[in-house]
Amino acid sequence: MARVVSLYFPRWPTDRIRKAGADGTPPPDKPMVVIARSGSKRTVCAADDAARALGLRVGMPASKAQALVADLAMYDHDPNGDYAALDRMALWMLRQYSPVVTIDGIDGIVLDTEGADHLQGGEEMMLSGMVNRLRGVGVTARAAIADTWGAAHAIARVTSPEWTVVPVSETAKAVLGLPIVCLRLAPETVSGLRVLGIETVGQLSAMPRAPLTLRFGPQVGRRLDQMFGRAGEPIDPIRSPEIVEVSRPFAEPIGAAETIARYVGRLVKELCAGLETRGLGVRRADLIVHRVDNTIQAIRAGLAKPVRDDTRLTRLLTDRIEKIDPGFGIERLSLVAVWAEPLEERQQSSSLIEETVLDVTPLVDVLGNRGLRVYRITPVASDVPERSFKRVAPMSEETGADWQSNWPRPSRLLARPEEIEVMNVLPDSPPRTMTWRGKRRRIVRGDGPERVFGEWWLRDAEVQAVRDYYVVEDENGERFWVYRQGDGVDTATGSHRWFLHGIFG
């Protein structure tokens, strides 16, 4: 079943202006509005949060808004600029989240994320990640996911949560109480329905269909059917001239897995040929399946590095053919390189003895396309152990950095240091006994202390902070990395509590 995400940008004109960062753009705490002109009439068509807090509203005359707020920042409405920025946002979403993305009106984007949410940690993690990433670049957004475009569109626009996940097959329950303005009907149709006393989707869906069609036309019934999933509403994916795409229509619909795999192999060869003419390699490819019932399915294959190897790309796509439901048949297959990068050709060695270079990128690609999060650890310049590393992409370039320490480090570092009870002699002796997770251990060897100071330039609370680390071994030969908060003398340097931070393999 399709799962559709609707992203709604309630402050898009003002957010877009601030995001562009033009000279003189006011800070977020200064009220700003966008003014639309209709002949000699000037009205507010968008207002940011600061302006709304001062009582300014969309539709208000510009002169009244200026009279209410003396230092109001006013910009002329630029619908072409808003649409162009929305188009760029949709192309970014296409690369990051889903193979099927398009623009939804003048203030939204819609995505079909069927089979793609697992790459983001599930639907809730995907929606929260979208909203948070957009907030990080200054764009206010609300997101909803449901079984249909109409339901997701409505929930994103008339509910207050930043993101909403409607469980599968619970669309009707989620939309019956929503106002009819969310049905994407003409304003005069909404006004006419309200004259009849119809305010909610539930009331409208309970009305006889024939009188509604006779009075308001077929659009009311069509929007209801689309919202409840009784009528299809395909998403036509957005495309850019820079995107390399190949397609294969079929005179007779296909459906067998072997047939699909054969044509996928041919499309991959065509795509690689098109990429070669541009000197590119693919990083992310989408197989778009167009069924005869006017629905779309998609399979996404990601690669750690740009490649033009048709065998490798074919394998990644055909490994997931079982995810395709051909239904009554497939009438067209499209293969799109939504993310391509320049590919440097490697010169073949002329030496008699070839150097053996272990390339793990095929394995990384296979694991990544199965939904596993593959990463590599790289050093960071920090003496504090939990800050001395970070996760990077598995095939990212080497930084040349290394862990600079003459002291041994454990093979396993706990996600959070766990408090332990110890018996020791202050201030510098290692523990004599240690109780961890309810088990008391007698320490037979210990080495330390290794003193680590707080990073006062990052946090004021670490100006005097100290940790003393010890490597200890119990009577069973198990070795641990423990530390004491503080120097053992001055309580200003720490609480003198003990923690276990790592385990030696």
Automatic annotation (TrEMBL):
One term of GO molecular function: damaged DNA binding
EC number(s) per entry: 2.7.7.7
Keyword check for DNA damage: yes
GO biological process: DNA repair
Every UmuC domain range: 29-202
InterPro entries registered for this protein in UniProt: DNA/RNA_pol_sf, DNA_pol_Y-fam_little_finger, Rev_trsase/Diguanyl_cyclase, SulA_CellDiv_inhibitor, UmuC
Cofactors named for this entry: Mg(2+)
Catalytic reaction annotation: DNA(n) + a 2'-deoxyribonucleoside 5'-triphosphate = DNA(n+1) + diphosphate
Record key words, sorted: DNA damage
Transmembrane segments: none
Pfam families: IMS, IMS_C
Matches recorded under Gene3D superfamilies: 3.30.70.270, 3.40.1170.60, 5' to 3' exonuclease, C-terminal subdomain
Family: Belongs to the DNA polymerase type-Y family.
Quaternary structure, from the entry: Monomer.
Function per UniProt: Poorly processive, error-prone DNA polymerase involved in untargeted mutagenesis. Copies undamaged DNA at stalled replication forks, which arise in vivo from mismatched or misaligned primer ends. These misaligned primers can be extended by PolIV. Exhibits no 3'-5' exonuclease (proofreading) activity. May be involved in translesional synthesis, in conjunction with the beta clamp from PolIII.
Protein name: DNA-directed DNA polymerase
Organism: Shinella sumterensis
